[in-house]
Write a structure and sequence with these properties.
The longest helix is centred in the middle third of the chain and has 18 residues. This protein is an alpha/beta fold. The chain is about 35% helix and about 20% strand. The protein contains 24 helices and 31 strands. It folds into four domains: about 240 residues, Rossmann fold (3-Layer(aba) Sandwich); about 160 residues, Succinyl-CoA synthetase domains (Rossmann fold, 3-Layer(aba) Sandwich); about 180 residues, 2-Layer Sandwich (D-amino Acid Aminotransferase, Chain A, domain 1); about 80 residues, 2-Layer Sandwich (Dna Ligase, domain 1). It starts with a helix and ends in a 40-residue tail after the last strand.
């Protein structure tokens, strides 16, 4: 038995705060339990009423004739703790706290919530809320509607969690209007105990739940979300709407990776790494749900488009291409059959344009012919109602084709003045998703194709490399002992070498009086071999190129000496520790690998196209560490400019294996050395064979979190604050709970 069964599959329910006053929350929840046929006994609790809804009421939970599985608490905030204590004493195993006035209202509410959470966790009781709408289970054996929502969604395969109660009300109405069947609904509220991760774990093995939808305002424990979700998504799609897409959460940081980590790129990374699908809006979320709940997944990405107007056909084709789908190339037999059945004016190439005079019979014949083509994996039928043709009749034709080809997904687009409602009932009854706009259908089918790919995804493994961790710790200790958090550039390059990441040849020339720098740098350059680059090394400088602190392509000792004299004269007011003389690297594609530490949750690893415009171009992919080999491969192939790494315009392809290994080595570095807060390798030159680091920046945590001399262990993944845009404060869970 799951610890969530008392909440989601209760045998009996008490409503504490049940009311006789209509249009109150306490009245509505009790009414919903009774009206929608909860299969167990219901006990109203109200010290001022003898009966409510003609059911005997009880003064307190202590007075209930038998212990109940679930107590729904709807009392003023100052009374919640006392009621929860009574529930614990009476053996109640599940609480849904509707009452508000907790963490969401400030410090006093935070303290109330802390005490409430401590009570339930100390006694093994599970709690949804506080500050929530309630829970629903439409299973005929349960028929639970413990919410104050005005309607009950139809039963179906979709489980839904909403962090916002108000959004949950809207979504339930929306689902009902679209005919989307809900298996379970949970308004999680403040997530003080039961989290999104707990619900994912619960729904993983619930057979009547085939699709999971999530409306989130924050991730409590992103690492745990990824861990749980990636075991679910090969079998069940998880679709997520995450609010707060603006860049307001972006944080100031010393590295490119740190600067980008607080943005929505981090949220995208978490969702993608979990194998889940992100929806931009709630409307799009339910567009996806209609497809997943009603149609099979496509076996391939080739789509047939059938329409009675050229414009919608073109829009569908463009939208398909934008969502990872391909417009199917018909074989010759298909085009011949279409030509024999359609008017001369019709286009028999994909998209198939039946022209405005198309009848329901034309739609049916064209769709049957397209589905019979072995090159077609799915179809979208778009209809604009002309005079004399009824949308309902076309919808019925689409339904007949859908029944004949149950293994290939069919989606409908009903446009025009009357829009979707005209054929809605027929399509809903036949489980054919219907959309008003072509782009919606293409996005939904694209999400279904992504899910098919996710179902085939190899889980991968976390590789382990032989590395010199003792040297890394020595560098960290020496930096901290010097009172600095920024590792010197020469030590940063040594650190990379300790981790098996190749660097260009280099020499560090410390300041010993500016007059001696020029000849010493010249001799160091001669030792390395020309041409060389000279860079200023300064803890006070973040971007050396902005102040003229880098000179490239120097071909002799004289050129080096001259460049050093000019540089030191120009930067006479800039404190610096010395110069880094580096051999010029051979030509390669500039990439960047980075890492930033997010709270105590762990590391966020970044890969992208490198150079000085990283934060401007933002062509990067992020993932939470520790990375699996499949994660690294997906990161390299996930950048928008990936084709540059494959080789274009006669350029040779780059060594993708070397890039993937470098990413994985950085991930291991982050896991084994938690005092490293941020790291950039920029650029890391992707070569035909191998990858070479040219520059590195490493920043340590400002506070020393370990006793001096204590050896760090691999990061233990704990729940905590992540970054402002992707997490909220959360207490560490007891064992057995999935924090989220």
């Amino acid at each position: 038995m799951s610890s969530l069964d008392p909440i989601l599959r209760p045998r009996s329910v008490a409503v504490v705060g049940a009311s006789r006053q209509p249009n109150t929350i306490g009245w509505q929840i009790l009414d919903n339990l009774l009206k929608h046929g909860f299969t167990g006994p219901v006990y109203p609790v109200n010290p001022k009423a003898a009966a409510i809804h003609s059911i005997p009421a009880f003064p307190s939970v202590r007075d209930l004739p038998v212990p109940v599985d679930l107590a729904v608490i709807v009392v003023p905030k100052q009374l919640v703790q006392g009621v929860a204590n009574e529930c614990v004493e009476r053996g109640v195993r599940g609480l849904v706290v509707i009452s508000a006035g907790f963490r969401e209202v400030g410090p006093a509410g935070e303290e109330r919530e802390r005490e409430l959470t401590a009570l339930v966790r100390a006694n093994g009781v599970r709690m949804v809320g506080p500050n929530c709408l309630g829970v629903i289970n439409t299973d005929p054996a349960i028929q639970l509607n413990a919410t104050f929502a005005p309607s009950m969604p139809p039963p179906g395969p979709v489980a839904f969690i909403s962090q916002s109660g108000a959004m949950g009300l809207s979504v339930l109405d929306y689902a009902e209007s679209l005919g989307i069947g809900i298996s379970m609904f949970v308004s999680s509220g403040n997530k003080a105990d039961v989290s999104g991760n707990d619900l994912l774990q619960y729904w993983k093995d619930v057979p009547n739940t085939r699709v999971i939808l999530m409306y989130l305002e924050s991730f409590g424990n992103p690492s745990r979300f990824v861990e749980i979700a990636r075991t679910i998504t090969p079998k069940k799609p998880i679709c997520v709407v995450k609010s707060g897409r603006t860049g307001a959460g972006q944080r100031a940081a010393a590295s490119h990776t740190g600067a980008l980590a607080g943005s929505e790129l981090a949220t995208d990374a978490i969702i993608a790494q979990a194998g889940a699908i992100r929806a931009e809006t709630v409307e799009e979320l339910f567009d996806f749900a209609m497809g997943f709940a009603n149609q099979p997944l496509p076996s391939g990405n080739c789509v047939a488009i059938v329409t009675n107007a050229g414009g919608p056909g073109i829009i569908v084709a463009d939208a398909c291409e934008a969502n990872g789908l391909a417009v199917a190339a018909f074989d010759a037999t298909t085009e011949t059959k279409l030509r024999s059945r359609l008017p001369d004016e019709a286009s028999v190439r994909n998209p198939v344009d039946l022209i405005a005079s198309a009848t329901p019979e034309s739609y049916e014949a064209a769709l049957r012919t397209c589905f019979a083509d072995p090159n077609v994996d799915a179809a979208i039928a778009a209809f604009v109602p002309p005079l004399g043709i009824q949308t309902k009749d076309v919808a019925e034709a689409i339904v007949r084709v859908n029944a004949q080809f149950p293994d290939k997904p069919l989606l409908a687009v009903l446009m025009g003045r009357q829009g979707l409602p005209a054929g809605l009932a027929e399509l809903h009854d036949a489980r054919v998703p219907a959309y008003i706009f072509p782009e919606s259908a293409a996005r939904a089918l694209g999400a279904m194709w992504k899910q098919r790919l996710a179902s085939k995804r190899r889980d991968g493994k976390v590789p382990v490399f032989r590395t010199d961790d003792e040297l890394v710790e020595q560098i960290i200790e020496a930096t901290i002992a010097a009172g600095r958090t920024k590792v010197s550039e020469s030590d940063a390059l040594r650190l990379l070498t300790a981790y098996g990441i190749q660097t260009v040849g280099w020499e560090f020339v410390p300041t010993g009086g500016t007059a001696s720098l020029a000849p010493v740098a010249g001799r160091a350059a001669a030792k390395l071999g020309f041409p060389v680059a000279v860079k200023i090394v300064s803890a006070a400088v973040v971007h050396k190129t902005d102040i003229g602190g880098v000179v490239l392509g120097l071909g002799s000792e004289a050129e080096v000496a001259r460049a050093v004299r000019l540089m030191t004269a120009k930067l006479k007011d800039t404190p610096f520790e010395g110069l880094l003389v580096q051999r010029m690297a051979p030509a390669g594609r500039e990439t960047i690998i980075g890492m930033t530490r997010l709270g105590r949750v762990g590391s966020l690893i970044m890969f992208g196209l490198g150079g000085i415009y990283v934060e401007v171009v933002r062509d990067v992919v992020l993932r939470l560490g520790p990375l699996r080999d499949t994660d690294a491969a997906a990161m390299v192939r996930g950048v928008k400019t990936y084709r540059l790494l494959e080789g274009v315009r006669g350029e040779p392809p780059r060594d993708l294996n070397a890039l993937e290994e470098s990413i994985l080595r950085v991930s291991q570095l982050a896991e084994r050395h938690p005092r490293i807060a941020e790291l950039d390798i920029n650029p890391l030159l992707a070569m035909e064979k191998g990858a070479v680091a040219v520059d590195a920046r490493v920043t340590l945590k400002s506070e020393v979190t370990q006793a001096i001399g204590e050896k760090p262990s691999a990061i233990s993944r704990q729940s905590s604050v992540v970054a402002p845009s992707i997490a909220s404060s959360r207490k560490r869970p007891r064992a057995g709970r999935s924090d989220g």
